[in-house]
Amino acid sequence: MEIPGSPQLHQLALAALDYGVENAPDGPLIPFVVTEGAAHKRVLTRIAGDTLEGSVARAFDTARQSDAERVAVCFDGYVTLEGGRDDAIWVVAHERGDHAAITFYQRYHTAHSATGFEVIGNTGYAGENDPLLGCTGTE
User: Fold this and answer.
1) What predicted TM-score, i.e. pTM, was given to this entire model?
2) Burial class (CB in 10 A: 0-12, 13-18, 19+), 11
């Protein structure tokens, strides 16, 4: 399967996912947005709030308002596969001009599990998502 998007978008998405996974053992992961401009300079902004859901919503709002070339939103959540439900770090990444964002996840066991923090399997591609850049949230 070929994953849509440019190599630069894939690199941004996987860098954000890696950073999220690196910070997951400290849990809970504070959602963050990574923007990347035309010069490939990246800026990471953590989006804290009263609740995880509120923080994630604010992170998506922040991404939608960005004037960057590429943006990634990273947050903690769950993924349900055939083997059941697992904790997972998610990233939704979008490049200006693309018709859709792309979504990846990385499953993990929490630090409080019997095995301690542990990444499960490989990064998963979850498909396309609503676009982020160029959207006001009211379109």
Assistant:
1) 0.92
2) middle
**φ, ψ (nearest 5 deg) of residue 69:** -75, -35
Over the stretch 5-63, which tens digit does the pLDDT of each residue have? 999 999 999 999 999 999 999 878 999 999 999 888 999 999 998 999 999 999 999 99
Q: Is the sign of the CA dihedral 12, 74, 128, 84 positive or negative?
A: positive
Phi, psi of 59 (to 5 degrees): -65, -45
Per the CB < 8 A criterion, the answer to whether 30 and 91 are in contact is: no
**pLDDT 10s digits, 88-129:** 999 999 999 999 999 999 999 988 888 889 999 999 999 999
